[in-house]
Structures are given as structure tokens and as C-alpha cells.
Amino acid sequence: MIADLGFAVVLIAFLSAIYAAIVSVIGARRNDERWVASARNAAVATFPLLLLASGLLITLLLQGDFSVDYVYQVSSREMPTYLKVTALWGGQAGGLLFWNLLLAAFTATAMLRKWDDQRPLMPYAILVASLTQIFFIGLVAFVENPFSRIPGLIPADGRGLNPLLRHPGMIIHPPMLYLGFTGFTIPYVFAMAALISGKLDEGWIRTTRRWTLVAWLFLSLGLILGGRWAYDVLGWGGYWAWDPVENASFIPWLSGTAFLHSVIIQEKRNMFKGWNMFLVIATYLLVILGTFIVRSGVISSVHSFAQSEIGPLFFGFLGLMIIFSVYWVVHRWDELSTENRLESLLSREAAFLFNNFVFIGILVATLWGTLYPIISELFTNEKVTVGPPFYNKVNGPLFVLLLLLMGIAPLTMWYRSSAQRIGMAIRWPALAALVVVGALIAFGIDSWAALLGLWVVTFSLILTVIEFVKGVRARMKRGESPWAAFSNLMARNRRRYGGYWIHLGVLVMAFGIIGSYFFQQETQIRLRAGESLSLGTYTMTFNGVRQYPGLDDLLIKEANLSITDNGRDVGTLTPRTELYTRSGQPMTIPSLRSTIEEDFYVIMVNWETVLANEATFRVFLNPLINWVWAGGLIFVIGTLIAAWPSPARERVAASARRRIALGPALGGD
Amino acid sequence: MAQTTWTTEQGELLQPRSSRLKYVVGGVLIVAALAFLIINAMSGNTQLYKTVDEFYAEQSRLVGRDLRVSGYVLGDSVEFIQIDATTSRLEFDIVDDIRNPGQRLRIVAENEPMPDLLQHEAQALVEGHADANGVFYANSGGLFLKCPTRYEEAAPTG
User: Fold this and answer.
1) Strand partners, A604
2) Whether A524 contacts B86, CB under 8 Å
3) Per-residue DSSP letters for A179-239?
4) Rounded to the nearest 10 degrees, how much is the dihedral formed by the CA atoms of A218, A220, A222, A227?
5) How far is CA A238 from CA A101, A393, A473, A482, A506, in A?
6) Chain B CB contacts of A584 below 8 Å
7) Mind listing the pLDDT tens digit for each residue in B86-141?
8) How many CB pairs under 8 A join A and B?
9) Does B123 contact A at CB distance below 8 Å?
10) Of A328, A440, A629, B1, which is most buried, counting CB atoms within 10 Å of its CB?
């Protein structure tokens, strides 16, 4: 009954999206606001409808109605309530419904918030948003229906959730990625609306920028949380593997980041209109491509997704949207070109341009590596893959360039800046960074690549901190206290200083990535009780294994290790294996000593061979790894600062809206 | 490298024709640099991707080459042997189709932890190379088991 209702609600949402698309076109053609308003209401209505459908699916999950195939696949009686709720996005069909819910939420918010502000773009914005919704809701309604029933006998219990996914990082990570992915639809919607309506002034850019930042924040969070989950759960001591599925979310992140930078040039200098349009469209298409890669299984990945027939449908949709986008860009090509040109290669706009080249370079290289199995099979009839060494080798130098730009670019001025001035500004930081590198060499670090990376990071870090100091000093000269000067600086110029916080976060992360990539040590050894192992400055002594039953069907084997650092006692570590005896699924849980310098990370190698007084351990020493997570946190805070609506600007925007509302409301093509 | 520019009465800049050429040359150089980086990074870092049957079809050609093979794990074949305190050996067989196992490929991984996901029907991706006897040696860190990104199990294809 509930399942039938759920399916019916999804169908109504589907029809509502079709209605919105058709009526928005009629509204635009007739230039009649009543039609457009009706289309908007239909587009907004998809949100409560999909919310209801999601609520009904959650009800089925909570009830444990295993006559519904999806409920059977992703849940079981013994699962705790919160996991039953999050099982909404635990499988393909539910995940797609959840995806639609988020897309509808974004669409409804954008349509309501921008209704007064962007009236002329609205009919087309509704059209493009609804086209996307028709495709995705259609998938849920007709291909991957989460409400479909199991044929034959109703099973007594469901299959349940893989224990490896019972981790907070894994529960939050998919929704974050989904929010990021679906969020990028809104910038695309307004970009296309600007193209179709021909209103290519700065209006769409203003609307798009904040939305891009929000989507970008969620995508960044998704990437960071995914890495943290891998580090905590998978037991290989790493957090990023350049797997196609990871790349699928990293690639749109790159083009989104490029856009967030180059959009500033359009605002300040009215340049690169066409390029910005390209980046917004590319980001959306790469999101669709990424979803296709993830869901279709065309590229072999260590992530497994249920194979299904949605691959070709995605491919078709991607093709249609490419044709649709390219057609409108070509149609409006003349209006996208600008008269302003670069005046100097030593200017802020040139710095942003270089930054974009590097981002696109990383994007192209990563996309090339990800798609290479398909490309090679097409031309040589043989699938060839490239692994992490490829990505590290090609992207390493590009990341170094990016970090270097991060330090220097804020020193440049619009139009042109003097080489002498920049030279003066970077002299001392460059030297100071060199001193740091000298100290590192004295400590015995001899990898030139690591030293180069650390020099660049230190250099740009100093310059970024100087930007903050300069800003605070200038305000203090006007008589503000240091703290007031600092907080006013942030509040008055959120985008700029939020951006610098993000840079700081990236630099701190880069420090951690260089440390853990170049200097990771690992070893594997079987110990008897009383024996010990030394790695780095650490020594661990094995005291034995305790075996005890855990919750439900769990059987736990927990080793006890005494750890000393430089001979000083620093406590015990207790790596363990948990065996889900019913399913036979083991779970290896690392134990680590985390400090600002490094993680001493221990796992047991094979639960079967663990005896009371003998076990095999794999031990990792991951230098600076916590800087990766700390940098991630700074990064997210910076993005929040940049994206936070500033009260002053909102008031200005609101009064501008009122002024606009007094004028003629709707214009067509 | 004196560069002349002209300004119109409105203060807009006009670019001499040589400037356009400069952008084209610059663009070509950037694309060339990226192409060089990509090609350079690919040399020595590519693997042929083969399923078990594809591997056996061309076994003699593939011996010793860098490969990435994929297949489904036969649960009964998994062995973890602790040779001495610092050496362990993990062995298992993979096949293309679990329900209709044809040829088996023996995978050997030295000093690798036993992955939690190494279970019957799990899909393994292994980077390494094969010897003449058809035993496939995994590179260090070259053994991947498909991560159950979705809760539901992937239907083994065949």
C-alpha cells in the first residue's frame, strides 16, 4: 500500500516536471507571466512530492517491509534505526530518489529566491531545470524504481548493510557528494537561461557565483570525508588512490574551482564571458559524465556499483545536453565575446588566467587517465589502464605551479603590476622558505621533489599570512584593536578573505600530503607475546590478544600493544578485528597514535591467524597526515566565510530588487 | 621585446596583429607542455587490462608484462601462509564467471594484509605480472578488492 503510494507520488512529480517544462516554454513564447508562474509552481511542487516519496521509502525501511525489493536489498531487522533511515541512499534506486530530492530542493530554492531578482531569466531557468528533473525522476519512475516488489515469496529478513559502511564518514559522504553534484545544476540552469534569453549581462553571473560556491563546498566536503573514511576503515594507510570513481567527483570539482576564480575577472574587467560560460557548462556535463562513470561500470574501478541498464540512458542524456549547450553557445557566440583584452602578463587577470590553465591542465590529465581504458580500446582494441604513478607524475608539477600561483597572484594588481614591486614583496618570503628547506636538508631529507614542494608551500604560506597581516595593520592604523581589525577585515570582504582562508587550508593540506606521500614508512611482522618492533622513533611491544563477544553476532579479537616514542612510554594501542559471525565478514580496525607530527598506525594482518599470544601486524608511519585533515577543516571554514551572505550586500540587493520590480517585469527573446 | 599598443579615444586598447600571434603561440606552447607531461607520465606507468580468459588467450605474449587483471575470487582457494616472522604469502584463484568457472588464475601476493573484502564472489583487481607457469604475482600494494560502495552486492556478471 505504502509502496504503491510512493510510486504514484514519484509519477506525479514526473508529470509535474513535464508540465513545468512545457508551460515555461509557452510562458516565454506568449510573454505571459501567469504561465511562467504556473510553470514555476509545478517545478517547486516536485520538492514536497519527492520529500513525501522519500518519507514513504523511509517508512518502508523502518517497518522492515521486505516485500519491497529495495528494502530487502539494503536493510535487515537487526540494523539500528539510524542506519535504516540512511539506507535511503544506501542503494542505487534509493540513492537516485535521494538525488532527485536534493535536486528538487535546490531547484525550488533557486526558483523562489531568484523569482523577483531574475524574472527575465526565469522561464528558461525553469525549462532547463525541469529537463534535468524529467531525466532523473524518469530514471526513478521507470528504470530504478525503489518501490518495486519482490516477485514470489516475501523474505523473512533483508540482506543488510555491509559492515564496512557502518562508519559516520561513509554515512555522510554520499549525501555531501550528491549535494555537490546536484548543486552544480543550478549554475548551469542560470547560465543556459542567460544564453537562451540573450540576457548575458552580469545578472546570471551574480546568481551563479554563490550557488557554485555552495555546490563546491559540498563537493569538497564529500571528497575530504571520503578520504577520511578510506584512511579509517580500509587499512591501507592511505586516503586517495586516483580510482576512476574518486576522479569522477574530483574532475567537476576542478572545473568548478576554475570557474570560481575566473568569474572574478568577468566581474571586475568584463572579460572571459565565453570562457566562464564554457566552465559552467563543462562542470554540469562533467557531473553527468561522472555519474555515468560511477553508475554504469564502463570503467573498472575498485568501487562496485550494482550493474544496471542506466548506463546507456545516461550516455544519451549526456549527448543531448552537450548538443543543447553547444547549440546555444554557438547561437550567442557574438554576444559572449568581449572587447577588453589582457594588457600585461603581469596582472591580476593574467594570474587568474594562468590559474585556470593549470586547473584545466589537471582536469585534462585526470580525465585522460580515467578514460584511457576506453580510448585505448577504441584505437588499439586493447584496454590499457594507468595507475596512481601516472596521476602523481603528471599532476605533481601542476599542483606545485598552482601552489606557487596561490602565493604570488594576490600580489598582482588589475591591468598591470610592476615586476619590481612583486620582486620586492616575494624576496624575503622566498629566502625564508629557502632557510626552512635548508633546515630540512640538515635533518636528512634528500628527495628533491619533496624539498621543492615544501619550499613552495612554505613560500606561499608566508605570503598568504602576510596578506592577512597587511589587512589587519591597515585597519589598526585607523584605531581599531587587533581583534576588531581582524574580524572587520573578514566581515567586510568575505569573498576575498574567505578565499585566502581556503588558500591557507589548501597549503596546510599540501604540507600533509607531501609529508605522507614522500615519507610514509610501512612494515609487516609477526610477533609473539613479549616481542617488539621498532619503526621511526616508535617501538611497540606485543602483550597478547584478548578475545571477547561484541554486540549481536560480533566476535572481537583485540591486541594489546605498549608503545614507546624515543624510549618514553606513550600508552597502548589496541588494533582489533571484528568478525560478523553470521555473514563471515571480518572487519579490520586500525589503532593509531595521532600527533601533529605523524600517525603511528597499526592493523592486524589476518584475523584467522591471530592467536592469543601471536599475531601479524602491519605498521604504518604516516608523517604529517593530520595536516591533511586540519587543512580540510580550515578549507571548509574559509568556504563558509566566502559563501555566507553578507547583511550589507543583501540589503543592497533587496533594494535593487524592489527597484527592478517597479520596471517592466518580463522580457522575452 | 618592445611591445606597442594603441589606445582609442574611449581609452580601449587595440592590439597589434603580432599580439594575436603571441596568444596563438602561447596557447600552442601550453598545449604542447601539457601533452608532454601526459606522455611522459604514461611511459612505464601503463598496464594492459585483461580478464582471466583474455589472459589465457594470449598467455605467451603477456608473460612478464605489466598487467592489471580482474576476476571473481573463489572463496575456497584463499590461503594465507605465514612463512616466517617477516614474510607472508597470500594466494587465491580468480575466474571470469563464478557460476561457470572456466580457467583459474592463481594470484600470489607477498607481504600483503588479508583484505577484509577478500571473500567468495568478491571482485579483485590485481596489478602485477605473470610468470611462465601462469602464476600471477601482485605488485606491492597492487591488490584491490572492489569496495562495496553500495550496500547491495553487485550481481556477478558473466
Assistant:
1) A617
2) yes
3) HHHHHTHHHHHHHHHHHHHT--STHHHHHHHHHHHHHHHHHHHHHHHHHHHHHHHS-SS-S
4) -170
5) 33, 18, 41, 41, 18
6) 119
7) 999 999 999 998 888 889 999 999 999 898 888 888 889 999 999 988 899 999 88
8) 155
9) yes
10) A328
Per-residue pLDDT for A301 more than 80? no
Tell me if A386 and B45 make a contact (CB, 8 A cut-off). Answer: yes
Lowest model confidence (mean pLDDT) among A218-232, A298-312, A467-481, B52-66: A298-312
B148–A162 C-beta distance less than 8 A: yes
Which residues in B lie closer than 8 A to residue A402 (C-beta atoms)?
Answer: none
Residues of A in contact with B141 (CB under 8 A): 236
| Angle at alpha carbon of residue B149, lines to B145 and B153, rounded to 5° | 80
Cα of A549 vs its chain's centroid, Å: 38
CB contact under 8 A, B147 and A234: yes
Q: What is the pLDDT of residue B147?
A: 59
Among B47, B84, B155, whose Cβ lies nearest the Cβ of A307? B155
**Is-contact B74 B52, C-beta < 8 A?**
no
Whether the CB-CB separation of A399 and A365 falls below 8 Å is answered with: no
CA gap A40, A113 in Å, rounded:
12
- Chain B residues with CB inside 8 Å of A609's CB? 80, 82
Amino acid at the residue A570: V
Tell me how far apart the alpha carbons of residues A503 and A494 are, in angstroms, rounded to a whole number. 14
- Contact (Cβ atoms closer than 8 angstroms) between residue B111 and residue B88: yes
Q: From CA A503, how far away is CA A520, in angstroms rounded?
A: 25
Locate the chain A residue with the closest alpha carbon to B5: A343
CB pair distance less than 8 Å for B116 and A585: yes
Under 8 Å between Cβ of A451 and A437: yes
pTM above threshold 0.80: yes
**Would you say A552 and A533 are in contact if contact means Cβ atoms under 8 Å apart?**
no
Q: What is the sign, positive or negative, of the torsion defined by CA atoms of A148, A151, A153, A157?
A: negative
Query: What Cα–Cα distance (Å) separates residue A567 from each residue in A524, A530, A537, A598?
Result: 21, 16, 8, 17
Q: CB-based contact (8 Å) between A608 and chain B?
A: yes
Q: CA angle at residue A610 from A607 to A616, to 5 degrees?
A: 90
Q: How far apart are CA B143 and CA A606, in angstroms?
A: 15
Cβ neighbour number for residue A391 with a 10 Å cutoff? 22
Q: How many helices (H) and strands (E) does chain A have?
A: 21, 11
Contact A471, A414 (CB under 8 A): no
Neighbours of A185 (CB within 10 A): 24
Subunit contact B114:A357, Cβ cutoff 8 A? no
Chain A partners within 8 Å of B48 (Cβ): 382-384
Confidence class for position A511, pLDDT limits 50, 70, 90: very high
Min distance B136 CA to chain A CA atoms (Å): 18
In A279-379, beta strands by DSSP E: none
Residues of chain B with Cβ-Cβ distance to A162 below 8 Å are: 148, 151
**Chain B touched by A341 (CB under 8 Å):** yes
The C-alpha cell of B78 is what?
584463499
Which pLDDT tens digit goes with each residue over A46-75?
999 999 999 999 999 999 999 999 999 888
CA distances to A291, A523, A610, A620 from A527, in Å: 45, 12, 10, 16
Give the distance from residue A54's alpha carbon to the nearest chain B alpha carbon, in angstroms: 18
